[in-house]
Every structure is written in C-alpha cells, then in structure tokens.
C-alpha cells in the first residue's frame, strides 16, 4: 500500500502507519481501510466524528442491506482497529457486536475426483502447484509463496514460511509430489523461469510468484476438463487432503499440525465430511431382528 501519497488525509495516513507498525498484511490493511471508507460514506462526514449511536445505526444499515455475516464481521474488525488503535477511543465500539457465522461443511472431492482433476491440469507448473495443494494440504497463498529452497527432499518436507498467523511450519512431502516438483523444476529451468533461490512457482515474470487468482483459474479449468460438477477452488484441495487423511485413520491431532491449525476445533470439522468413517458405523437398526 502507498503510505506516502500526498493526497492521503492525515487521519488515513495515521491509520496506515498504525497498520504498518504492526506489520499487518497488505490485504488486511486494504480491508480495514475499506471498512472505514464504508462508514464515512454512510455518515457523509469524517469517520472520527462518529458516535456510539452512529455506529449502531451503521451496523443496522449493513444488516438491512443484506451484507453477509462474513463481510459484516470483517467490517467490524476494521472499524475496531480504527477506533481502538488509531483514535484511542475503544468505548465507541461497545455496542458493535459481531454476528454468529452459519456452520457449514466444506465441499470435498473424492480421491478419484482429486486424481482426475490433477490429471486434467494441462500446464505442468499448475499441475505441480495443485499437487502440492492436495498432497500437502497447503493454502493457496502458501503454495504461491513457496521457494525452491523450501523443498527438503532429505527430510521429505516442505518448509512453509510465515503461513497464516505469521507462523513457520513444515508440511509433508510425498514421493509423488516430489517427483512432480522435480519434473516441473527441469522444465522451468530449461525455460529460464527458475531463478536461483527464486519462487518455486513463478508468475509470468520470474521475479514475481504465481498469484492466487491464477492458481484458482487453473483449478476451475481443470475441474471443467475433468467433468467435475462440484464447485471447486484451490482450498477445496486442502479440505480434501484433511478429509482423506482422516478417512485413512490418521490421528486428527497429526492432521491439525499438518494443516497449521491453532485449535483442534478447527480441524474437527473434517469429521463431519469423512464419509468413509460414516459407512463403517453400524447403525442401531442393523442390530434389530428382521421384521
């Protein structure tokens, strides 16, 4: 984000500096600024003049205009930073309450569908990247930010640097994923795209990494080519990774570590979509005498 633009107001400049001091991610900074901009548009005046009643009416406005729970809560988080940190007036947010998010289960591919999707990926770089997303359970952002040096073939691990929550961790590296990475590395090096110590999946400019948008576009194309009718994103491959491990009786606490989840509760959602586990359960009706 540009923090030196002379057209930026002193108030916004201070908020930008507050976020920069705390090293917030660029996307987080953009979301927080967007939240304050929404409030300004609603008030039709500077956001630092808002009262408790103004903020309450603003939340009612968001609800009445059909704002989704996720967007609404994200807006409140941005406003909380603005009032608590930038203005030092935390008392203004006392009546702003986040809404409860609906509990949903993620879409998951079968093992056969995941294999078909990867096989239908025409670009070898995209196939290797999606193989990492499914074979190691990485987030799209984590896949895109991998560097060549993050592949540890001796320990059969992938180093994930500064994943979600600004934490480093190691992810699993299977022989199949390693073989696909080596195939891509040979092709990428021959094409002059693999720079020493550079990105494992470079973008059009080798100095830049592959973007999340480009990766999701590759998933959509492969999904259509494989004839899969489910709505699939790169994150669906991560969900599928966790679900398939659980169905293979891998301890859920191990899966939690591999996914980089802070809380076991987050990982436990996959118990609701592991259909192989459900099929193994003997229902009470099966034990009753035949009619």
From TrEMBL:
Keywords, ordered alphabetically: DNA integration, DNA recombination, DNA-binding
Transmembrane feature ranges: none
All residue ranges annotated as the Core-binding (CB) domain in the record: 6-87
GO BP annotations, alphabetical order: DNA integration; DNA recombination
Keyword Transcription appears in the UniProt entry: no
Superkingdom of the organism of origin: Bacteria
Domain Tyr recombinase: 104-283
GO molecular function: DNA binding
InterPro entries with a match to the protein in the record: CB (IPR044068), DNA_brk_join_enz (IPR011010), Integrase-like_cat_sf (IPR013762), Integrase_catalytic (IPR002104), Integrase_recombinase_N (IPR010998), Integrase_SAM-like_N (IPR004107), Tyrosine_recombinase_XerCD (IPR050090)
Entry's family note: Belongs to the 'phage' integrase family.
PANTHER family, A to Z: PHAGE INTEGRASE-RELATED, PROPHAGE INTEGRASE INTD-RELATED
The protein's name: Site-specific integrase
Source species: Ideonella aquatica
């Amino acid at each position: 984000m540009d923090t030196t633009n002379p057209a930026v107001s002193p108030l916004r400049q201070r908020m930008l500096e507050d976020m920069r001091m705390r090293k917030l991610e660029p996307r987080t900074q953009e979301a927080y600024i967007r939240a304050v901009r929404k409030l300004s548009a609603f008030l039709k005046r500077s956001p630092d003049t808002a009262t408790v009643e103004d903020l309450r009416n603003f939340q009612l406005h968001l609800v009445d205009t059909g704002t989704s729970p996720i967007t609404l809560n994200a807006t409140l988080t941005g406003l909380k930073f603005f009032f608590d940190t930038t203005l030092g007036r935390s008392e203004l947010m006392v009546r702003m309450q986040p809404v409860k998010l609906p509990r949903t289960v993620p879409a998951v591919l079968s093992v056969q569908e995941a294999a078909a999707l990867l096989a239908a990926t025409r670009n070898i770089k995209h196939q290797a990247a999606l193989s990492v997303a499914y074979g190691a359970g990485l987030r799209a952002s984590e896949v895109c930010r991998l560097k060549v040096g993050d592949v540890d073939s001796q320990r059969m691990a992938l180093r994930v640097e500064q994943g979600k929550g600004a934490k480093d961790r190691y992810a699993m590296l299977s022989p199949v994923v390693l073989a696909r990475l080596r195939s891509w590395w040979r092709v990428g090096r021959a094409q002059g795209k693999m720079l020493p110590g550079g990105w494992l999946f470079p973008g059009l400019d080798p100095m830049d990494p592959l973007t999340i948008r480009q990766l999701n576009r590759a998933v959509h194309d492969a999904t259509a080519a494989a004839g899969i009718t489910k709505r699939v994103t790169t994150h669906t491959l991560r969900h599928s990774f966790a679900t398939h491990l659980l169905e293979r009786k891998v301890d859920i606490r191990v899966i939690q570590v591999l996914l980089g989840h802070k809380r076991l509760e987050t990982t436990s959602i996959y118990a609701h979509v592991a259909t192989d586990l459900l099929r193994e359960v003997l229902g009470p009706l099966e034990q009753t005498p035949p009619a």
